[in-house]
Amino acid sequence: MTTPSIAGSESHGTRRQLLDAAEQLIGEQGVDRATVRSITDLAAANLAAVSYHFGSKDGLVREVFARRLRPINRQRLEMLDQCLAQPGPPDLEGIVRAMVIPPFRVLSADQAPNFGRCMVRVLSDPSQEMRELLMEMFQEVIERFSGALIQALPEQDPAEVFWRFHFMVGTMAHTLGMGHLVEEYSGGVSHMRDLDSVSERLVRFVTAGMAAEGTG
């Protein structure tokens, strides 16, 4: 007879396999084309496992994003709080660092190479449901960081700050999702093997763009 501890471990393993498979297929094909059958086939699980662990495909998709974004956004807000707690005006680079560093740190630690592509896929062609899901998960981050950037860039019109925030998110998503192409483009001169170095480059690049003279 299977003991409860073994059964629980097997159940947890199946749940993770389903999440990993869904993350990979969403990154390759998009949410709609990543069917429950293709996900369970890749995960070597039966069709009923999706209902058992997540209730539905929608529940599975939600958890694919939540399991990565929850720790990322928690770290972002913690780093932002630390930055804003320092005396004096908000430090622009500190704000950018709080936004940029956590996804590289968390995804590197979790060894989640497919999640960046997964995010790029849904950001480039999201359904209404995905837009609502991502807005729900990012709402606090958007509000807190845009407010901090407006404080750090008092000479800029808020509309310009929001554009620059948008550009920062796009640059970060592209790097996380498509950064593997840089090695091919550069003939091996540049690569994604050292994520700490990549994230520091991105912080410098985005901070300079944020601080650039306005468009008028």
Task: Describe the model.
The protein has a domain at 64-211: Tetracycline Repressor, domain 2. Mean pLDDT is 90; it is low at 1-7. It is mainly α and 216 residues long. The longest helix has 28 residues, at 57-84. The protein is built from ten helices and no strands.
Question: Which descriptors apply to this entry?
Answer:
single chain; 216 residues; mainly alpha; Tetracycline Repressor, domain 2; disordered N terminus
Content of β-strand: under 5%
Proportion in helices:
over 70%
Query: What structural class should be given to the helix and strand makeup?
Result: mainly alpha
Q: CATH top level of the domain at 64-211?
A: Mainly Alpha
Termini distance? 73 Å
Rg of Cα set = 19 Å
Extract low-pLDDT stretches. Answer: 1-7
Number of strands: 0
The CATH topology of the domain at 64-211 comes to Tetracycline Repressor, domain 2
Under CATH, the homologous superfamily of the domain at 64-211 reads Tetracycline Repressor, domain 2
Mean of pLDDT: 90
Biggest pleated sheet: none
Tell me the series of helices and strands, N- to C-terminal. Answer: HHHHHHHHHH
Helix tally? 10
Named at the architecture level, the CATH assignment of the domain at 64-211 is: Orthogonal Bundle
Please state the overall shape, judged from the principal axes of the Cα atoms.
Answer: globular
